[in-house]
């Protein structure tokens, strides 16, 4: 949370509020579940980290790796809808940022949707003057990725197993609001399934006409 509000607390050139921060990451209303990533992770008490190099390129490259993403899904499957990197550090040269973006494109480290702009937004932020760190540069990522659908699919599969066995449902039937049946559960499942279908449709070139 501290990293995500860096450009608000230490004013930057393009973020004035939280809405402005995430608005460009959500092109369609349904697909608004963002994943986050951070590097390098350091134990506060020991200042120990497995990361040695923290150039702008190294930080931005590691932000694309699944092991640095704080969601239980893999970015090896699916595509990015949008991505924002907040790079924090002292005296960061914007030229390094442009060179890093070029290297990432050349190596094809990230895959974007075929129907929209394939660009990584980058915001530069100051380091906190109150927290000492062993690294010159750190990076935070907010991204909209179609692999988020796997989290909802996992929930649907678990729900289907429980519903098939009628497990835990007796407690609900005792409540007045479920006296007429448990159709509300099926309606909720349909909403989640629609969300999964929407994320999968985002991966297709014809997504702009999806649902019309």
TrEMBL record:
First-listed, main subcellular location of the protein, grouped into a coarse class: cytoplasm
Subcellular location: Cytoplasm, Cytoskeleton
Family annotation (Pfam families): Tubulin_C
Signal recorded as keyword: no
Domain Tubulin/FtsZ 2-layer sandwich: 15-157
Alphabetical keyword list: Cytoplasm, Cytoskeleton, GTP-binding, Microtubule, Nucleotide-binding
The keyword Nucleotide-binding belongs to this UniProt entry's keyword annotation: yes
Job description of the protein: Tubulin is the major constituent of microtubules. The gamma chain is found at microtubule organizing centers (MTOC) such as the spindle poles or the centrosome, suggesting that it is involved in the minus-end nucleation of microtubule assembly.
Family of the protein in this entry: Belongs to the tubulin family.
The name this protein goes by in its record: Tubulin/FtsZ 2-layer sandwich domain-containing protein
Organism of derivation: Tetraparma gracilis
